Every structure is written in C-alpha cells, then in structure tokens.
Predict the 3D structure of the following.
Amino acid sequence: MSIKDELYELIGYLDCTRRVGHTTTVMEGAVNNDCIVLAHNQHYADTLSKQYNVDARTYRSKSLRGRRTPIVFDNEAIRQILADSLNFIKKQEEEIGKLNNKIEAIRSIIK
C-alpha cells in the first residue's frame, strides 16, 4: 500500500468515525497528565482549554519550541495534518509530471 493509500485510509476512518469519542478519550488522558493538547485551530484550542482546563494550542503554533512536555493531538488536528500531507504529495506528483513532460519535449528536440 502506498503512502497516499494509507493517508486516504486514515482520513476516511476519521471522517467515518466522527462523534464516537475521540476527543473525550484524548481529553481524559490530557486532564490527568501534564501535556499539551494540539487542536486544529485557535478557537477550538481555546474551547478545549476552557472546557477541560488543559494547555491546548493550535498545532500550527510555534509555541512548542523549547518545551519538553508530552503532546496529544485532537482528531481533527490529525485529520488536517494527514490531508495537508496528502495534498502536498499530490502537488509534488503534479510538478514531477510537468517536469517529466518538459524533459521529454527537450529530448525529442535533441534527437
């Protein structure tokens, strides 16, 4: 299975299992441990911080630099990271395809 297929599988799983308790499970662990909860955006990080009294931040934040604390990810943060990775791979493959076409065009001129 390719990395793209694995990413599709994981994203599909997260999409199909909404409202099953991912966040509750993560937050039960976070409340009982000194860790940072990484959320998909600042609004949700603020909501988690207030609702569960935890240190929640956006995963796009640079505020983790210098920290040595365990982190846990909310499921939507994981889903977004996976989707961003998949989109990056797709864009790179498209760019490679364009470059290969240019290489072939140059080769045909040289022959």
Observations:
- The beta strands are 36-39, 55-58, 71-73.
- Residues 3-110 form one domain.
- The longest helix spans residues 75-110.
